[in-house]
Amino acid sequence: MAAIQNDFIIKAGLLVSGNTTVPATTNLVTSNVARAIARPTIDFNFTRSTSLDPRLKFSRNSIGTYVGKDGLIKYAGVNQPRFDYDTTTGQSKGILIEEQITNLLTYSTLIGSGSWNTRAGTTSVISSGIAPDGSNNSTLVTNTSGDGYVWEFLTLSPSTTYVLSVYAAKVSGTPTIRFNAYTGSAGQAFTSGATALTSNNTRYSFSFSSTASVSVGDVGFYIVSGSALVWGAQLETTTVGSNNTNPTSIIPTAASQVTRAADTLAFSPDQTLYDPTQGTMFIDFDANNTSYSFAINGSALNEIATVRGPTDVGTWNGVVALDAINSAANANTGVKYAIAYNTNQPPQASLVLNGGNISSSSTQSLQYGKSSSILYFGNGPSANYRVIDGHIRRFTYWPIMLTNAQIKQLTTST
Asked: Where in the chain is the domain with CATH 2.60.120.200?
């Protein structure tokens, strides 16, 4: 029998973080752990593995990119999940779940070729340095006597939020980067402030919203007062509420625009492990899309963890809602959210976000998964329906309603 590895943290008699490795054919835990905690029947820790539990079903009908443990950008094939890492710390961020997005810029990894343009006094030489994916495809942009502008001509959509981004690293001089989007009509130029570049490959971005009328214009960036390596130019707009202001993962393009398909991660829980009428769910996640994106959703569209803003997470079954609010929380950097519920009469529910105040209800008919045979992690049953555009780090489920004190401890950062 395989050894059992204990590397968890116990708080107030409750398992709150860590991992337990057990034989695949059993649900054994050590006796001391069984005594110390209410043992969960489902526990997916996406930061402790680079492969999915076989009970989880994942799909994405395109390639996708992610950051590997070595800090380099990697390429995942069709239907291959992406376990993303922090470029600075090398720590796992969990499984990456994103909506369908199109990179509107072409030749994104060979900037200066194809449809790219440069002003007089600015040069661009492709394949001149190491790119963030480890290739030699970075382009050297040098500002000599001009304004250092590099751009493509595009027609944008009216009244739409866009995110423009590129990787850049200083080579010589004291270069800065500044983004620009000009849609072709007076008063429709959008320009970012200038940022000094370092010698490290860093992704810079700029978000802007177009006006009600647009025409053909240029979109690009300035490299001023020196030279820099650039790679991975991307112009994108979210399809879920037009509210993202951060770039999603790199979408490489050549002669044509490229669309990355949505990630879908689904779970059909064994009814011997999952009680749809009562239980406790713990979700550790982050979300770039904070306008009604969610971490967990049922096939009947009863949302179990819905992000309504940077400090507001709640649950909703299509009729009534209950929110957990913590002014110190920030969905873009991660939240720990727990809900303990019992839908039997009288229905009860308690919610807590990042160890904050408990939100409770004893009258609403909340149905957390009651009519669902499938749970969706970070997305929904239909394409691009409120996708998280972020990471799921952990999902844990107990088939009992834990106490308010226990779920508060569960969501308190360690």
From this structure: 40-99+264-410
Q: What is the pLDDT of residues 357-375, one digit of tens each?
A: 999 887 555 555 555 578 8
pLDDT digits (tens, 9 = 90+) for 90-104: 999 999 999 999 999
pLDDT tens profile 174-232: 999 999 998 777 667 889 999 999 999 999 999 988 888 888 889 999 999 999 999 99
SS3 of the chain: CCCCEECCEEECCEEEECCEECCCCCCCCCHHHHHHCCCCCEEEECCCCCCCCCCEEEECCCCEEEECCCCCEEEECCCCCCEEECCCCCCEEEEEECCCEEECCCCCCCECECCCEECCCEEEEEEEECCCCCCCCEEEEEECCCCCEEEEEEECCCCCEEEEEEEEEEEEEEEEEEEEEECCCCCCEEECCCEECCCCCEEEEEEEECCCCCCEEEEEEEEEEEEEEEEEEEEECCCCCCCCCCCCCCCCCCCCCEEECCCEEEECCCCCCCCCCEEEEEEEEEECCCCCEEEEEECCCCEEEEEEECCEEEEECCCCEEEEECCCCECCCEEEEEEEEECCCCCEEEEEECCCCCEEECCCCCCCCCCCCCEEECCCCCCCCCCCCEEEEEEEEECCCCCHHHHHHHCCCC
pLDDT, tens digit, 9 for 90 and up, residues 295-318? 888 776 678 888 887 788 888 766
Instruction: Give yes or no for residue 32 having a pLDDT over 50.
Output: no
Whether the full predicted model's pTM is greater than 0.90, yes or no, is no
Span 102-260: which CATH code?
2.60.120.260
Top-level CATH class of 40-99+264-410?
mainly beta
Q: What residue spans in the chain does CATH classification 2.60.120.260 cover?
A: 102-260
